[in-house]
Amino acid sequence: MGWEYVIPGYLIVFGSLATYTITLLRRGRQLAAQLPPEKRRFLD
Amino acid sequence: MTTEMSPESVSGPSSTDQSGPESFSTTASKVTTVLGWLSLASIAALLAFGLLISPPEISQGESVRLFYIHVPSAIVCLYIAFSITFVGSVIYLRKQSVFWDLVAGASAEVGVVFLGFTLATGMLWGKPTWGTYWTWDPRLTSTAVSFVLYLGYLAVRRLDMDPVARSKRAAILGIISFANLIIIRYSVAWWRSLHQGTTLDPRDTQLDDSMLVSFFLGLVALSLTFAWLVIHRFRVAWLEHQLEAQQLEVAIAERTASAGPTGLAAGGA
Amino acid sequence: MIRHAKLIAAKDLRIEVSSKVLTAQILPFGVLVLVLFGFGIPPDRRVLGTDTDVSRSLLEQAAPGLFWLAVLFSALLAINRSFAIESADGNLDALRLAGFDPGGVFLGKSLAVAAELIVLELVVGLGAFLLYGPPLNDVVLLVATVTLTTGALAFAGILYGALGAGSRLRDTLVPLLVLPVLAPVLLAATRATESALFGPSSDGWAWVGFLGAFSLLYLGAGILSFGSLLEES
After folding, report:
1. ipTM of the predicted structure?
2. Domain definitions of chain C by residue range
3. Nearest residue of C to residue B176, measured between CA atoms
4. If you classify domain B38-198+209-230 with CATH, what class do you get?
5. What is the per-residue pLDDT across B41-68, written as a single tens digit (0 to 9) for each?
6. Measured between alpha carbons, how far is B85 from B102 in angstroms, rounded to an integer?
């Protein structure tokens, strides 16, 4: 009892996390490509 | 409008001779790569323990597994994410550093995502436990209101206006939203305590060892993931900021060039 | 600051009197919302009161909350209006450049909106009594509740209204910003009004205290932050 709620819950959370992560990485690449290397300063 | 950068983010001539992760056109670095793999590993461990190894709870059955996400994501967004936004906003107002403005924004955005997870898993947990997706439980209700509260904060960050004025407004909002978070939480709790007996309290749950491990793994996995996401979100925001500044520079240079020697006033305007 | 506040409040109220937006548009809207609630909530359904054995109509029992919802929605219009009259010619910038104290501008605009809200609450309140027919148990508690809620709505409303000022998105942004903030106010005002109408009064005074603290908090926050908010708006 309860799996029908547990599975959607995990799918929503980790599905959204994956989507958000991919969007973020793509956007980062896209932006970084438009800037010269000396402007791509991040903190490490 | 000149803005003072914080020491961590100052881009000077010395930055060009630094090689390493920055030469790739991504927002990753050595630290975040390690952090990313750690997040993935802990998520895998959470899935193994939370879904397979740990047993169902005696009274709640399998639905207790939603807790291993629900409670950690609530802790991460309500206690960590919005506190970072608050602190970042305070520092921004004092030092006008773009760095802290962007950190505040990045943390709020990822916080809202986690708040969404808290709501979704909370409602899914409520259906088998309370028999309904939504009850006017104080925590659930105040979480829903807080969700909209921070959606408003994110909306202000996207306003179509002068970036410095916008950052200032966002910082003020980031500070008072934190106060509102507390007001909403306590007023709703007070409201419910006057009109309804206690409902089944999630904290009464009996946890055995493997459940505690699952819960702990959830906390680790979501905290690491949060950190990784905030760093990357910050870097994307930083790149956007740089790009905006660069476009402005180009535009000003073009104007001064075309205006010629008499164009000082026009170029500076 | 007080002198500037008086000037700004007088200016806003004069504009309001001459344009008649409050009386011709916002008041009718508030009363209309009361009538529409009657369509949403079955008027003939009777329920047992929360605190007594008396059976009341559902509308009567919900009257405090419905009244404050109607006021809240109308207040959004008044807040938007308060900034619409400034945005036309960059008025907020002009006020700042003319040397107006930002705290005074905040206070003045809040007081003008508060005055409009009082008128609104009198009319909508009368409408609520006529349409929903609740009893009245404690007049003092009701007056205290209405006064402090007006302050809370005006101070928070003007502060959040300023956050959207100068943007084309203001009309849609301000409700999104201000409604979650005012949710606790709605809650407290509704509970206090329930006590004032149905009794017992003791529960209500605690909520009135909350409303007072909320008003003071936003009064302080508004005076402190309005300077930064008005810059470059």
Report:
1. 0.90
2. 2-230
3. C221
4. mainly alpha
5. 999 999 988 888 888 877 778 888 998 9
6. 9
